[in-house]
Design brief:
The complex is a heterodimer of chains A (570) and B (567).
Chain A: H1 2-14, H2 16-53, H3 62-107, H4 110-116, H5 119-131, H6 134-160, H7 163-211, H8 213-218, H9 222-274, H10 280-292, H11 295-321, E1 342-349, E2 359-366, E3 371-375, H12 382-389, E4 397-402, E5 405-406, H13 412-418, E6 419-422, E7 431-432, H14 433-438, H15 464-473, H16 477-482, E8 489-490, H17 499-512, E9 517-521, H18 529-542, E10 547-551, E11 563-566
Helix pairs in contact in A: 1-3, 1-11, 2-3, 2-6, 2-10, 3-11, 5-11, 6-7, 6-11, 7-9, 7-11, 9-10, 9-11, 15-17
Chain B: H1 4-8, H2 17-23, H3 27-59, H4 68-113, H5 124-136, H6 138-166, H7 168-215, H8 217-222, H9 226-278, H10 292-314, H11 316-337, E1 357-364, E2 373-374, E3 378-380, E4 385-389, H12 396-403, E5 411-416, E6 419-420, H13 426-430, E7 433-436, H14 447-452, H15 459-465, H16 469-473, H17 492-505, E8 510-514, H18 522-537, E9 541-545, H19 549-553, E10 557-560, E11 564-565
Parallel strand pairs in B: 4-9, 4-10, 7-8, 8-9
Antiparallel strand pairs in B: 1-2, 1-3, 1-5, 2-11, 5-6
Helix pairs in contact in B: 3-4, 3-6, 3-10, 4-5, 4-6, 5-11, 6-7, 6-10, 6-11, 7-9, 7-10, 7-11, 9-10, 15-17, 17-18
Classes of the chains: A alpha/beta (570), B alpha/beta (567).
Chain lengths: 570, 567
């Protein structure tokens, strides 16, 4: 519950004014509804009394009937405004939440980030954010609205009808509403978590079955997998039934509350009318207002249903948003002129909990203008070595000095502008080619984003010729010119290019940064031999001064290296 | 979010035909739940009558009427009954809805489980998302929309008859306002349905933006672009929000129209009734003056006349989503029905004694609608290694799948000793077969479980025999490590060596291997090949499809698949 409240606070803080305006309109809607029914009840009863007394002619029917019509129209209008305002504010707040989540994930250690890249983890993440969209809209704003309207109607009933009626209506709603809220919050939580877990397990097992169908069949394990999915389906239904039973109990309590409040208003008002303290028409106001206020709890109903799911989601989202800030050295170190670009000594790495070192011990020196090939069989830890060299993963032992300074002394920004690593599985993002390339450049090499769509995407770069020079050198220029140039739009994950084309685009992105040190993990993978040769040959021409470390298992790639360091499986 | 099948073909049948067919088994419980909820709603009429009578008594003290205490007690008793019935009907509808979801999932998965090795659709990710989240969208429709629909057919009619009993004029007011609502809803509903679908697509896009960037975070960090990507995420979400709000502005208009009409309806009934009671209006009450009680009663039931319509409108989106999902399920089931099935059940069975494995005259369609391929005859004896060569696409994988009973051949026979491979014997024959797929993948479970797949045996010894202990040793958690989704830290060569350990563990008498050395460096390829030779030395027969000369050279015999189309 604590994380849920924190998320609510943060969302409110993102758009306080919009939420306040929306809530005020929400109060207006509910209050007008109560006024409409209360006025109608009073009007009809008062008319009846006047009719019986034979004073119909003197009865001022004009103002009440005009009031009824005005309230009916005003209520619908206020409702529209309230919905627009609160939805807009919620969308804004959710954008802010997504952004905070992104920033939190960005601060995670490299290996934890990699675990989040899986489809299952990403799926859970988005479903968690979606679950939180009702937090303000269907839970907190309705609660605030209902409480405000209760307070307003308490005062109104006190003066218009009688204090006894005001007390009975307000107390009935407060007690019943609080009870329903507590009961549902307690019970829905565990069931919602169980339902969500069962659903994710159902998803993962179905994916397993479909992807490894041949494997499982030959192993005689297909039926076993199938019954595992069956168990997940059954567990999901059980949890869902339990969750909905809790929700029905909450709904039951809310509906009962409305009934009790109305009965209490009828009793107290009716007895006062019998005693002659108030008129029957005034008694009718109390009863009708009590009925109309039932709309408030009904608003809360859906929010209550989602409460359990929200609590679970809030806990996970808060945990990610709260990722501690990466420790960062304060200032950029001065470069030692004479030192080699990169020196590693006695470098080893061992994964936590594993019995064997991934690689090492290993010594390595890289000077400017030099290309070093790191070769070795698969599983020898070549990719891990690059991650360690670029500071993504800490080394288990050994030292790394970048331009003469220990790697740990480098602030992140300075480190990244000096050294660029192109990982083996490098991802593009959805958007134009220009947007993908612009990601690689610091602000001083970019121009402000163009306002209109008619501006050519080249205008984004301060040196568009260099962009095209690199694309052409990687034999990607023609491919793009045949499409829409830098404006070519890529789908999510950069889909829309062939494997070899995306590989060259991420390479272009890395080259555009013009780093002092370039680390490339299997840059020629997915390229045919001719293209691979052209691409590797272009590296030197484009970055004559850079130190390049190349990981590859293709024998042909040796031709592009000055030296080779072999990593053996330990 | 919605289906591709939905947009693809025109529908000659009613819009919700697929949904209706899908929900046929729970039609009865749903209609019972609907009727019960209608009954619960009609109890309101009794409550109203009681209250109206009591107020009548207060206004005209001479008449016989319940005291406020009696009225309040009766009112409360009816509330309890009403709320109880509501809860009961909701429980019935929700249970039926959850049952429908579970059964639909089970049926879909049962059918998809038996797809043969040639099936490309539904794609695994599509199937998983259809079985998990999308099927779940049937539940709100069944639990909310269907009962609301039943209520709309019953409650307004009964209430308008009650109103008309006292005043035809008030009934006319409701009749005018009421049916106008469906008309407007039909108009705005079309727009609302479209816009809500578009809106869901927008929300989908917002998530895509986030997922895209989180999946690329490692790259963004390396490019020093974490902050810039956050800025672009913010501005992209902003643009999406503006578009979404324009769509919502229309969608909300539809519900505003509905609320406006119901509010005006109630207001007009109130004003009319007041004027009649006042004696200003004399028509519309069948010539008899309206009593105070009757006036209050009419006023009280007027909002309830509109309530079912409002419920239906609130559940409108549930119906649209459920229809889209039902269409997609129907399309997927049709796709599956049009694909081939595996032989046998895919369950565990006692294995047969070692024997020569021989096939002849095989003709297999490599894909649905493709011309059948003639596959060369062949066979292996225990301890013998057979290579299958041929250019890629010639049918090497198809042959291996057919031999494992994963594809029904058009013609020909496959024998394990004297036993013919058919639906009845497939499980027993497969119990003696080990399988090394071209791209190894481990199920999402601890490694020990992914390797044994529930079979008995000494895994440690098998790992030692396959020289795969060091791979496990380097994994965090060793045999408890999960190698899900992204391969979890083993390379292609390591995965193949683990697969060989799996075949040794299962004590396979025959191992079928598909391109065991593709994409591997020479050193790793040699390690995999020596693993295969270990299997052979232990007495297993090997059938290895490959175009790697080193692998083929290690085989006792090689047959070529030419990819000939059968005449």
């Amino acid at each position: 519950m604590k994380s849920l409240l924190r998320i609510a606070r943060d969302m409110l803080a993102a758009e306080p004014k919009a939420f306040l305006r929306g809530a005020i309109l929400g109060v207006t809607v509910l209050a007008m509804g109560a006024a409409l029914l209360g006025l109608s009840g009073w009007f009809v009863t008062a008319c009846a009394m006047a009719g019986i007394a034979g004073i119909g002619i003197d009865f001022d029917f004009f103002r009440p009937s005009a009031g009824v019509r005005l309230l009916a129209l005003g209520r619908a209008g206020a409702r529209y405004g309230e919905r627009m305002l609160t939805h807009d504010a919620t969308l804004r707040a959710l954008s802010a939440l997504r952004l905070r989540l992104y920033r939190g994930v960005a601060r995670l250690p490299f290996e934890a980030q990699n675990r989040l890249r899986g489809a299952e983890a990403l799926n859970r993440l988005t479903s968690d954010v979606d679950a939180l969209d009702g937090l303000l809209l269907r839970l907190l704003i309705p609660v605030a609205t209902v409480l405000t309207v209760l307070a307003v109607s308490f005062v109104t009933l006190w003066f218009l009808v009688a204090p006894a009626v005001a007390w009975s209506v307000t107390l009935a709603y407060l007690a019943g509403g609080t009870l329903a809220l507590i009961v549902t919050a307690r019970r829905a939580h565990g069931a919602a978590e169980a339902a969500e877990t069962a659903l994710q397990s159902l998803r993962a097992r179905t994916l397993d079955m479909a992807q490894s169908r041949a494997d499982l069949t030959v192993a005689g394990a297909l039926l076993r997998q199938r019954s595992g999915i069956g168990a997940a389906v059954a567990a999901e239904v059980t949890a869902r039934n339990r969750m909905e039973a809790a929700d029905r109990a909450g709904g039951f309590a809310l509906s009962l509350t409305t009934g009790i409040a109305a009965a209490a208003a009828l009793l107290s008002g009716g007895m006062l009318a019998q005693a002659g303290t108030i008129t029957p028409a005034e008694a009718a106001i109390g009863f009708f207002v009590a009925m109309a206020l039932g709309e408030g709890p009904a608003l809360l109903r859906r929010g209550l249903t989602e409460l359990g799911r929200m609590q679970v989601a809030a806990r996970r989202v808060t945990a990610l948003c709260d990722t501690p800030v990466r420790p960062e050295p304060a200032s950029a170190p001065a470069r030692e002129g004479s030192a080699p670009l990169l020196v590693a000594q006695g470098l080893t790495h061992r994964r936590a909990g594993s019995a064997r070192a991934t690689f090492g011990p290993l010594d390595l020196t890289l000077t400017a203008g030099e290309t070093v090939l790191i070769s070795g069989p698969s599983g020898a830890g070549k990719s891990t070595l690059l991650s360690v060299l670029s500071g993504l993963i800490p080394a288990t032992s050994g030292t790394i000095a970048l331009e003469g300074r220990p790697l740990a002394d480098w602030p992140e920004a300075a480190l990244r502008s000096t050294m660029t690593l192109l990982p083996q599985r490098s991802a593009l993002i959805g958007g134009t080619v220009a947007e993908n390339l612009a990601l690689a450049l610091p602000a001083e090499r970019l121009r402000p984003a163009p306002e209109s769509r008619s501006t050519p995407p080249e205008a984004r770069f301060s040196d568009p010729d260099r962009v095209w020079q690199i694309l052409d050198a990687l034999e990607l220029g023609e491919v793009l010119r045949r499409r829409e140039g830098l404006a070519t739009v890529l789908g999510p994950g950069g889909s829309g290019l062939s494997g070899g084309q995306s590989r060259r685009l991420v390479l272009a992105r890395a080259l555009l940064r013009e780093p002092d040190i370039l680390l490339l993990d299997e840059p020629s993978e997915g390229l045919d031999p001719d293209t691979a040769a052209a691409v590797l040959g272009a590296l030197r021409t484009l970055l004559p001064e850079a130190g390049i470390i190349l990981v590859s298992h293709r024998p042909a790639d040796r031709a592009f290296a000055d030296r080779e360091i072999a990593v053996a499986r330990s | 979010m919605t289906t591709s099948a939905k947009t693809a073909r025109p529908r000659p049948t009613p819009q919700d035909a697929a949904l209706r067919a899908l929900a046929a088994p729970i039609r009865r419980p749903l209609s019972r739940a609907g009727s019960l909820s209608a009954l619960a709603e009609l109890i309101w009429a009794a409550q109203s009558a009681l209250v109206a009578w009591c107020i009548d008594g207060l206004v005209s003290p001479g008449h016989f009427a319940p005291t406020p205490l009696m009225a309040a007690a009766g009112f409360l008793a009816l509330v309890v009954l009403r709320v109880f019935l509501e809860r009961l009907s909701t429980a019935m509808a929700q249970r039926a809805a959850n049952g429908l979801v579970a059964e639909t999932r089970a049926r879909l998965i049962d059918r998809a489980a038996r797809l043969d090795a040639r099936a490309r659709r539904p794609a695994p990710a599509e199937l998983a998302s259809l079985a998990a989240e999308k099927t779940a969208m049937l539940a709100p429709w069944a639990a909310r929309y269907a009962p609301a629909m039943t209520r709309v057919r019953i409650v307004p009619l009964v209430l308008i008859a009650m109103t008309a009993w006292f005043s035809w004029a008030a009934a006319v007011v409701l009749l005018v306002a009421g049916p106008l609502i469906p008309v407007f809803m039909a108009l705005v509903g079309i727009a609302a349905k479209e816009s809500s679908e578009r809106q869901m697509a927008e929300v989908g896009t917002l998530n895509t933006l986030l997922v895209d960037r989180i999946a690329a975070l490692a790259d963004l960090r390396l490019l020093g672009a974490e902050t810039r990507a956050a800025e672009s995420l913010a501005s992209a979400s902003d643009r999406l929000r503006e578009r979404t709000m324009r769509v919502l502005a229309i969608a909300f208009l539809s519900s505003t129209v509905l609320e406006l009409f119901s509010a005006i309806g109630v207001a007009m009934v109130a004003v009319y009734t007041g004027f009649v009671l006042l004696g200003e209006i004399h028509f519309g009450t069948w010539g008899v003056p309206l009593s105070t009680g009757a006036g209050v009663f009419i006023l009280m039931i007027a909002p309830e006349f509109f309530q079912p319509l409002r419920d239906l409108a609130a559940a409108w989106h549930d119906r649209a989503s459920a229809m889209a999902v039902a269409d997609e399920i129907a399309a997927t089931e049709a796709t599956i029905a049009g694909s081939g099935e595996i032989l046998g059940t895919g369950g565990a069975a006692p294995s047969l004694p070692r024997a020569p494995f021989i096939w002849s005259g095989l003709r297999v369609r490599p894909g649905p609608g493709a011309a059948p391929l003639s596959l060369p005859d062949g066979g292996v004896a225990p301890g013998e290694a057979l290579g299958i060569s041929g250019p890629s696409g010639a049918g090497k994988t198809t042959l291996l799948s057919t031999l494992a009973g994963l594809i029904h051949p058009e013609a020909g026979e496959i024998r394990w000793g004297e036993t013919l491979l058919d639906a009845g014997t497939a499980d027993a024959i497969r119990a003696g077969i080990g399988w090394l797929p071209q791209s190894p993948r481990f199920v999402d479970a601890p490694l020990a479980e992914a390797l044994t797949l529930g079979r008995e045996g000494d895994l440690t010894a098998a790992l030692a025999a396959a020289q795969a202990e060091d791979i496990v040793a380097a994994l965090p958690g060793g045999l408890q490590a999960h190698l899900g989704d992204l391969g979890g830290g083993v390379s292609g060569g390591e995965a193949r060596r683990l697969m060989i350990a799996r075949a040794i563990h299962s004590q396979a008498a025959l191992v079928l291997a598909d391109e065991p050395t593709s994409d591997l460096d020479p050193e790793t390829a040699a390690a995999v090949l020596s693993g295969l030779m270990t299997l052979k030395a232990r007495g297993a027969a090997l059938i290895v499809a490959s175009h790697d000369p080193a692998v083929l050279a290690a085989m006792d015999r090689v047959i070529a698949v030419e990819g000939e189309t059968a005449r």
